[in-house]
Amino acid sequence: MMKRDEALKILAGHITNDTIVVAAYTSAFEWIAIRPSPLNFIFTGAMGLASSHALGLAVGRPDRRVIVLDGDGSLLMNLGSLVTIAQVAPPNLIHFVCENGTYEANGGHPIPGSGKVDFAGFAKSAGYADAREFSQISDFDAGIGALLQAEGPVFATLKVEPGAPPEMDYAMMHGAEIRRDFKAALDEI
């Protein structure tokens, strides 16, 4: 199993400055600490909707790569988004799910089917162009370049350990300034 922050650091080293990243909950706080950017669309309070937000951005901005950093508990709340994404088939969408078997943002309670659910299998069955699973950091490091170059929608499960809680600044995350910066960054690219 990988440490989530280590996997996110590898991902951060492979994306370009014009990539839109949609991140929810704990992954969002880790992501903004690892790779601050006005093109980070981060949020809490909308569990299950990261993939839907990313789909809208991928369709609305087909000229940009859109990466979604989803959680396993979050995706379980909106599995139908997999079928919708596969039907729309945005070639610029890459969907990561950080699978740690818990609702980490809500106290670490286990998700239903923890250890039994095959998220990459769900995505493949839904019709994603490619679906993979990574549980070793060396395999993720070796495969991330090709994954990011593949035509989407592409899906990858990252088997991760629940991380140490990052600093969680909810006022910043939900503030007007971060939304203005995101809108301005979208208008510039």
How many DSSP-defined strands?
9
**Low-pLDDT residue spans:** none
Q: Biggest β-sheet, characterized? A: 7 strands, parallel
Please identify the structural class as seen in this structure: alpha/beta
* Average of the residue pLDDT scores: 87
Order of helices and strands: EHEHEHEHHEEEHEHEHH
CATH fold-level label of the domain at 20-107 and 146-153: Rossmann fold
CATH superfamily of the domain at 20-107 and 146-153: Thiamin diphosphate (ThDP)-binding fold, Pyr/PP domains
Overall shape: it is globular
CATH-defined architecture of the domain at 20-107 and 146-153: 3-Layer(aba) Sandwich
Strands, helices and their partners?
Elements: E1 2-3, H1 4-12, E2 20-24, H2 25-34, E3 40-43, H3 50-60, E4 66-71, H4 72-76, H5 80-88, E5 93-99, E6 102-103, E7 109-110, H6 119-126, E8 130-134, H7 137-149, E9 154-161, H8 170-173, H9 176-188
Parallel strand pairs: 1-9, 2-3, 2-4, 4-5, 5-9, 8-9
Antiparallel strand pairs: 6-7
Helix pairs in contact: 1-2, 1-7, 3-5
Structure, explained:
There is one protein chain. By secondary structure, the protein is α/β, with parallel strands linked by helices. Helices cover 43% and strands 22% of the residues. The chain has a domain at 20-107 and 146-153: Thiamin diphosphate (ThDP)-binding fold, Pyr/PP domains (Rossmann fold, 3-Layer(aba) Sandwich). Strand 8, helix 7 (137-149) and strand 9 form a beta-alpha-beta unit. Helix 1 crosses helix 2, helix 1 runs parallel beside helix 7 (137-149) and helix 3 (50-60) runs parallel beside helix 5 (80-88). The mean pLDDT is 87.
